[in-house]
Fold this protein.
Amino acid sequence: MILLITFLAKAQDCAKALQEVAAEPVQVAATLHEAVTQLQAQEFSAVVFDQLLLDAEPDDVDTIVKHIGTAVPVFSNFATSGIERISRELRAALHRRKRDSLAARQEAQQTLRMELKDTITALLISCEMALDVPNLPLFAETKMRAVDALAREMRTKLG
């Protein structure tokens, strides 16, 4: 969902155009106070700010920023920008958000994979050392071999 913050009369036309561009519902807030209420109530993928409204209510800008969450902010001067330009800016911002999210996810997966590989290596070494203990009871040896096999299987799956 997208939040459009503007007090201009063409807000509904802009909201309709943005909804088509983003293929997401668009909610309109005519004041920053109304925007904060909506931001507290639900999650948004983007927040489109009318620069004129921000200039008219500069004290409330910090409050909005605190509540924006993971939404990507898009700042535009609605008095000088047409709906097409605002739509392009939103499309570009959503594309950046998607690309950044994918990169962060891939980095997190790689970090987790490396951490798991280190843990599995330590587990395999511990199994080998335990299996080298003289006079190891057969039951314990069987369990250690099972743990060793599971660790090797996990290592293979991690690549």
The CA atoms of residues 1 and 43 lie 7 Å apart. The radius of gyration is 27 Å. Strands lie at 2-5, 26-29, 46-50, 72-76.
